[in-house]
Amino acid sequence: MMQNVHLAPETDEDDLYSGYNDYNPIYDIEELENDAAFQQAVRTSHGRRPPITAKISSTAVTRPIATGYGSKTSLASSIGRPMTGAIQDGVTRPMTAVRAAGFTKAALRGSAFDPLGQSRGPAPPLEAKKKDSPEEKIKQLEKEVNELVEESCIASSCGDLKLVLFNLASQYSVNEMYAEALNTYQVIVKNKMFSNAGILKMNMGNIYLKQRNYSKAIKFYRMALDQVPSVNKQMRIKIMQNIGVTFIQAGQYSDAINSYEHIMSMAPNLKAGYNLTICYFAVGDREKMKKAFQKLIAVPLEIDEDKYISPSDDPHTNLVTEAIKNDHLRQMERERKAMAEKYIMTSAKLIAPVIETSFAAGYDWCVEVVKASQYVELANDLEINKAVTYLRQKDYNQAVEILKMLEKKDSRVKSAAATNLSALYYMGKDFAQASSYADIAVNSDRYNPAALTNKGNTVFANGDYEKAAEFYKEALRNDSSCTEALYNIGLTYEKLNRLDEALDCFLKLHAILRNSAEVLYQIASIYELMENPSQAIEWLMQVVSVVPTDPQVLSKLGELYDHEGDKSQAFQYYYESYRYFPCNIEVIEWLGAYYIDTQFWEKAIQYFERASLIQPTQVKWQLMVASCFRRSGNYQKALDTYKDTHRKFPENVECLRFLVRLCTDLGLKDAQEYARKLKRLEKMKEIREQRIKSGRDGSGGSRGKREGSASGDSGQNYSASSKGERLSARLRALPGTNEPYESSSNKEIDASYVDPLGPQIERPKTAAKKRIDEDDFADEELGDDLLPE
């Protein structure tokens, strides 16, 4: 028992470094050559791990061994158990002693040893962070705030308290805490050691300008101007521009003119020249307006267009030219040129009608000045604006003459002029000329969406809806923001009865034009055609939220609610429609019928009396008034009304019948006289009917065909064309309508629905070229909002 007990050797407790030279002889590699077991393992397969592809087919495991003749023999395990690492039933058997890295129990047959997972390929790229997400914005703001806080802390630790106050004042101003910002700036400015007090006073002037305290703003701007040294020329010019803007907002145009004249003499720029022209226009000085316009045109753009044109075939130079054609500098130059053209066009359109005796002479002067400047290409645009002005004055001949002159210009101007001419002729329903000029516009500029839209309109007017849709689609391919083409293709699909595609177009347009009453109405109209009145009502409610006083939309809502059987809601919207437009005969008829249904005869009378005023030649309204008096028990008033109606319409049989009945009931002597008249009229009516019947015998078949085709065309559900029939049927179905006065009219009321938003329901929009639309003085060019009549 004690043979397994080993006693620790006695060592010197004071020897702290004992045992460091002792080592295990297993790790002695110098004696491996003399180790028989190790040498046997190296020379033979003793101790090797078998391949993992071995498979157990029975109780004994076999492993194919290749022979020298190419055949294979199998060696079975001597004990008949599965080999270590073999695969059985698709599952790898684990090693008995060692579990290798990367081993999985469910490894498939043939899988290689891949501890690092290299066979899976490269890792997927990291998901990019969304810069516009709320989290990123919050993090960015937090970072900026922390930077400002750190900057302020560093400045405070260095004793630079003015920088801390400046940051604080800037944040007060950004957060519209103007009083606190002014107090903080004042603390800095009072420090005599601060050398940039002029800039801070300009900031204080900006705050007073935002508060509309113009006198104090001008005071601080002038103080800043006095404290900014003359060597800082750009800063002084900016301060003077702020002074001029403040004078304009205060209505002191003479003082503003002095500031801008000084700027134009020292360092002319586009904004100063534009504002100077506006100031002279405000004071009405014609000659000074011309001079200011000339100064504006003379401002140099400082843009070198030649550097973007490669002068040689040198590949290196061409590469450099291509690289700078759309860099940030080029984009800034384009923006500067666009701003200059905007200011010049707006100024010309503003002063042209007033600088000469007529606007035509004023435009001619502006065109001549522009042609002599670096903006020569704007002269043609001014000519187009001149034509537009003629159109606004209803002088179509002059407008057409100018536009036809522009047809001889370059392709861009020719396309614009032909587009406007096409729109003019389309509005005049001269579709042949409209189509001709639309072809010219398209041939001059195939990528002009307005020209393609107008060409589609002319094809649409001829009834070729499929071809019109192709032109609209091409216009959308050239300019996806062409809302006229998208609107018109929706109308085209509606004509083709492709309601789902039409609805999709208008829903896309609704995403672009959120508050367009036209688009909302079209969506409601399509839902109505799709026999979905609930959705139609919902979209019409949105139309009412945009145009709450449109009487036709309100009457349409009333019609839909009436069709759904909700009389109270129908009455509400019909009554609102009547309030805004008390001359719609359909609305008046429905309201009168509603009050008869509810037996409020007195209220029905006022609507039928108004109907008789609107249609004085229709006898039915006066008969309805008399009928309401009679049903309410006011027989004398009813008798007087019937007599008055008989005087106006002496050949009306129904009126005479009621006169005979009333006079008989009241015991009046006039009954016999009215009875003789009635008998004579009935006899004449019989003779007339016999003549008509004899005349119809020869053409009965063809007439029957026409009537059958007409009835077949009017079978659309919820159609507005059947509205008059429903209303008249309601009147005939009222209590007592079997009496003859209810069917006196031989003609039904025309109840065809009129689009509340204009004629674009029936025809597509007309698109034309647009030039100026970015400013208050700019006038829209012809055709952007033109709708065919």
Explain the overall architecture.
The chain has 789 residues and is mainly alpha-helical. It has a domain at 609-690: Alpha Horseshoe (Serine Threonine Protein Phosphatase 5, Tetratricopeptide repeat), CATH 1.25.40. 61% of the residues lie in helices and 2% in strands. It has helices at 36-43, 134-157, 161-174, 178-189, 197-210, 214-227, 233-249, 253-266, 270-283, 286-298, 315-324, 328-355, 359-371, 378-392, 396-406, 411-427, 431-444, 449-461, 465-478, 483-495, 499-512, 517-529, 533-546, 551-564, 567-580, 585-597, 601-614, 619-631, 635-648, 653-666, 670-696, 700-713, 723-732, and strands at residues 62-66, 72-76, 87-88, 91-92. The strands form two sheets. The chain has a two-stranded antiparallel sheet. Strand 1 (62-66) and strand 2 (72-76) form a beta hairpin. The chain is extended, with a radius of gyration of 47 Å. The termini are far apart. Residues 1-11, 53-88, 702-727, 729-764 and 766-789 have low confidence and may be disordered.
Features:
789 residues; mainly alpha; Serine Threonine Protein Phosphatase 5, Tetratricopeptide repeat; two-stranded antiparallel sheet; two-stranded antiparallel ribbon; disordered N terminus
